[in-house]
């Protein structure tokens, strides 16, 4: 085995052409269901990276937004073997390492790993294999399956960076989480509770029991004047932006904060309320903090639906409706084209 790289039996031998893999191909401004599975060459590791055999890939709203010129569209790189307008979507992965590049000491072949790879640049997570910089991945907590782990990175780090980094959440504070049953929201509820906060969860009627099961006080947003039922909070984590920001401002104590993960304008905020927009960034320490919370049993991702690679278009259609409970995940571990 080379001193430069270490590999398992199914990793390509040095000097040989990369074996094929199945991958989902996206093209801009096409129907959400218009995703196709093609055979493309596996990626090749460079120093500081590992090659991951992907078992599952998380589906996030930005995956869909990027297909219509929003989200991360500006930063996407076309796949070199496809036409200039095509790419492999996705950033969240979970699987096992099959090869390590030169200089990698933290991981070895056979390690189970998960992470958010290269965001917002192209990662190609909807595929059987992905190369990832070691700073973008973490060992998978043993209590999670790969499907569960794939639903964790982007949503959990978004929640963590919004609540802990931007929101400066401390024990004993009251926190309102909007869209609390969604991908980011249900993890934000658990993270805030683990930090000692009292959590109020704004959600739809059908998800009231779900957010209560996470330990939150629930508020049904379909009720008229729902804000009148909320005692003042120190921090709001907003997923929506838009017209309902004015209602959210009314429930925040003077000196409190509203952190949004939407692109909404915050110019209308009262002067005694601090506001900030957060865009998730790859952060190795943050991912390790999330993994530690999972290890301790404080955070568990809820995966509501699992799709195959061939059904990736249906996954995009489902998440575009905006009423997903927990996470959607693509199972990539079907028949391989490598043999």
UniProtKB/TrEMBL annotation:
Q: What InterPro entries does the entry give?
A: ADH-like_N, ER, GroES-like_sf, NAD(P)-bd_dom_sf, Quin_OxRdtase/zeta-crystal_CS, YIM1/Zinc_Alcohol_DH_Fams
| Keyword list, A-Z | Oxidoreductase
Q: Does the keyword Oxidoreductase apply?
A: yes
Query: In the UniProt record, does the keyword Oxidoreductase occur?
Result: yes
Q: Which GO terms describe its molecular function?
A: oxidoreductase activity; zinc ion binding
| The Enoyl reductase (ER) domain, residue ranges | 30-330
Gene3D superfamilies recorded for this chain? Answer: Medium-chain alcohol dehydrogenases, catalytic domain (3.90.180.10), NAD(P)-binding Rossmann-like Domain (3.40.50.720)
Please report a single Pfam family linked to this protein: ADH_zinc_N_2
Q: What is this protein called?
A: NADPH:quinone reductase
User: Which species is this record about?
Assistant: Mycolicibacterium parafortuitum (Mycobacterium parafortuitum)
């Amino acid at each position: 085995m080379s001193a430069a790289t270490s590999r398992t039996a199914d990793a390509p031998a040095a000097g040989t052409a990369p074996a094929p893999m199945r991958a989902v191909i996206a093209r801009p401004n096409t129907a959400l269901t218009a995703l196709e599975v093609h055979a493309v060459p596996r990626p090749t590791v460079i120093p500081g990276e590992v090659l991951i055999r992907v078992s599952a890939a998380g589906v996030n709203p930005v995956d869909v937004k990027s297909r219509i010129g929003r989200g991360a569209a500006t930063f996407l790189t076309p796949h070199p073997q496809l036409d200039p307008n095509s790419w492999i979507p996705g950033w969240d992965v979970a699987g096992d390492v099959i090869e390590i590049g030169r200089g990698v000491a933290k991981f070895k072949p056979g390690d189970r790993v998960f992470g958010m790879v290269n965001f917002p640049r192209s990662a190609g997570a909807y595929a059987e294999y992905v190369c990832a910089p070691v700073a973008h991945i973490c060992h998978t907590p043993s209590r999670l399956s790969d499907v569960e782990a794939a639903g964790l990175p982007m949503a959990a780090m978004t929640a963590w960076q919004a609540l802990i980094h931007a929101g400066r959440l401390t024990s004993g504070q009251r926190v309102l989480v909007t869209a609390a049953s969604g991908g980011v929201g249900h993890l934000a509820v658990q993270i805030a509770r683990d930090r000692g906060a009292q959590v109020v969860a704004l959600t739809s009627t059908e998800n009231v029991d779900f957010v209560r099961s996470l330990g939150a006080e629930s508020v049904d947003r379909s009720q008229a004047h729902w804000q009148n039922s909320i005692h003042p909070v120190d921090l709001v984590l907003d997923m929506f932006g838009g017209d309902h920001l004015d209602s959210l401002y009314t429930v925040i104590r003077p000196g409190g904060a509203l952190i949004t993960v939407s692109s909404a304008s915050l110019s209308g905020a009262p002067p005694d309320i601090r506001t900030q927009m957060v865009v998730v960034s790859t952060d190795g320490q943050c991912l390790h903090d999330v993994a530690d919370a999972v290890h301790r049993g404080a955070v568990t991702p809820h995966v509501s639906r699992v799709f195959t690679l061939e059904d990736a278009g249906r996954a995009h259609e489902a998440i575009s409706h905006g009423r997903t409970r927990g996470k959607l995940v693509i199972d990539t571990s079907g028949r391989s084209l490598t043999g």
